[in-house]
Amino acid sequence: MLDRVAALGKAVLDNIAGAGQAMVMLLRALVGKPQIRKSWPLLMQQMYSVGVLSLVIIIVSGLFIGMVIGLQGYTILVDFGAEQSLGPMVALSLLRELGPVVTALLFAGRAGSALTAEIGLMKATEQLSSLEMMAVDPLRRVISPRFWAGFYSMPILAIIFSAVGIYGGYLVGVRWLGVDEGAFWSVMQSNVEWGQDILNGIIKSLVFAFVVTWIALHKGFHCTPTSVGISRATTSTVVTASLAVLGLDFVLTALMFG
Amino acid sequence: MESRNTQLAVGFFVIFGVLALIFLGLRAADTNVGSSNETYKLYAKFDNIGGLKERSPVKVGGVVVGRVTRITLDGDYYEPLVEMTINKQYDEFSNTSSVSILTSGLLGEQYVGLSPGFIDDTVEMLEDGDYIQDTKSALVLEDLIGQFLFSQGND
Amino acid sequence: MTSADADDLVVIENLDFAHGYGAHQVYKGLEMRIPRGKITAVMGPSGIGKTTLLRLIGGQLKPQSGSIKFAGHDIPQLSRSALYEQRKRMSMLFQSGALFTDMTVFDNIAFPIREHSDLPDEIIETIVLMKLEAVGLRGARDLMPGELSGGMARRAALARAIALDPELIMYDEPFAGQDPISMGVIVKLIKSLNNSLGLTSVVVTHDVAEVLTIADKVFIIADKKVVAEGTPEELKASDDDLVQQFLSGDADGPVPFHYKAESFAKDILGEEADADSDAEQRKERDNA
After folding, report:
1. Pairwise CB contact (< 8 Å): A130 & C95
2. What is the DSSP string of A224-251?
């Protein structure tokens, strides 16, 4: 019994220490005078591997999710003779929820795990130590550009996801099922608002970007530098980041739309 | 040269994102009454607001001119007070204007219908923070049925 | 700075270090002086913390107490930026080579130069080719690290380590896992680089035969401190049991073959009888 209490206490302390470690890492990586000339190409490189390479999965998933909402929404709405409301249904569910959340989940799986594995492997092969010994701060050289790349990329990906999803809903609803095109767009327009819907979706996605990238980098930077350690850290990134996104989504939704 | 391709790809990525945002803004969203536009506030007291909600539209002859931004209970008798945010573009309503709570369609959302009053030298224009005196409450279906049955009984 | 410090590039005094929160004591009262311009070998059994020593000198780890002076600067006391300033004067060859896997060999070696200087590309190219020539890999400049053999990777890493012309270069197990030929190449490289560039080299290893041929000074670390030091000749002539065990590679001796454990009989039979005496014997041997 006492052992269990002790183990619980240790687990709690470990988690708090981990959070503190992650906080220190982030502060060290981001504070300090930026060197635009040197960090710009690094940022581009990371934007490419984190953002551009995630584009295909985002576009394909966005299209299909939009099409599924269009199809499901139509079959439900047509019973009430309210198929004109298909537009706002597709747009609002994508802009407010699915765009930011699904993008964040896919991002955690695609880019987050890659970030963790890459940094973990750099640690295991002593590349991070080697940077330090070359008087190059790995937090500034490795962590910081990856963090900003994730932070900038994810909202862009979420916007693209929503836009493609709405187009998917349009394809199914208007082109296939024959909802009136004018009604589809105009009812959508009268129900979707810049500030309330689009902007809040972007804010959500910025929060998710911050959290997912941070978790991925922290798990990689502080992993046990062995093959088992890296694989655990990668799994842990996807699990922790996904749970964090879903939990935070509830909190943010409650604050924004509650 | 390899980094040049990378930069190009990232550039296209960002442009693509901006285009998507413009698409969302122009195609999907209502750009008439945005949060950035200049607005002013009007107030109206009702006996019963029915199913009116915050963010319900305020329409003049079917055209959206603003939105309900706050619903509170006011005064000693706890009358529903509706705050409406109206686009600055439409700021020439006289204080003889009336508002009523209407329903779009049989099962549709409720909205505030604003009817502009007559204008002559004796009336003043409504300004930010003014109250609209002439209000008509929402029709509540149960009351209507009750009245109908009552009038049937009298025949 | 005393006169002795002038001849010694790295001076370690009374160093205590433990991993974690004092769970595993690595060094206790370690004293070491590494002479300038010479090749110093640090030897000792595996797991004794030789790599830890290099990390301490590089400031990647902080000791609990004691001082590590690099050219007169006390490394553990330095601020972050001052430490990074000092690190530009030293470099380290990691066991795995630690080449950046996403760059070519050329870019790897150009990396520290690009990071720390604003030299134009042509000059950087000249410097990099010079360094590659020194390790005999000029023809491999466009290969990725994954395409190099282990020995070549280590030589490329060596070229990167000398890219900024450091004063101190630390080799972490440079011979581990190398075939005899590449081992010979690396031995020759360490020697020739040390002489031609006026470096101070610290070689951490347990490959006794190789390192004794080039070392000017040898430290043997065991039991959390330096147990023997001197020139290779002095050590070979030493009558210390531990030194002799280490140099000749005997399986058992002052450094026991067994990791500290309960007696074997007790472990497999669960018997209490005469286990105590056995354990005591081992304890005595451990302390010896």
Report:
1. no
2. -SSHHHHHHHHHHHHHHHHHHHHHHHHH
